[in-house]
Amino acid sequence: MDAVTYPNAKVIDFIDRKIVPLRVPADAQPLSTEFKVMWTPTLVSLDYYGREHHRTVGFLPPDELVPSLLLGMGKTDFDTEQFNDAILHLDEILSSYSKSAAAPEAVYLRGVCRFKSSHDAKPLKEAYEKLASDYPDSEWVKRAQPYSLL
């Protein structure tokens, strides 16, 4: 990723504005053992307390790295019950990176966040419908299938 992804202007700007990066050699102890780094690159999204919420293993081109990082941010917010913040990160994936590999999971998780913050089941069904129409081959359609019955 050093040759293609990290030097990309959009990636540099995103990292500068939105995350605190820490680059550690894959064999650096104790971190590589603690975070089970078995292959490079491995990108781990952590919360304030150092708990993992998302992981990406292997090369990603620039147009996939940013949405993957946003997904990690959204999952961190979701796991810490910051649903409105999670929705903002997931909405950014869907508005700016709707063709990315992260988009289907963002649709699913956005529906769950909207449900958790409102206790209204309608967002779950809407998530299923969007997945079925926009990402019909995604595993997330199968995961959301029960919501079609709502």
Automatic annotation (TrEMBL):
InterPro entries: Thioredoxin-like_sf (IPR036249), TPR-like_helical_dom_sf (IPR011990). This is Uncharacterized protein. It comes from Geotalea uraniireducens (strain Rf4). The lineage of its organism: Bacteria, Pseudomonadati, Thermodesulfobacteriota, Desulfuromonadia, Geobacterales.
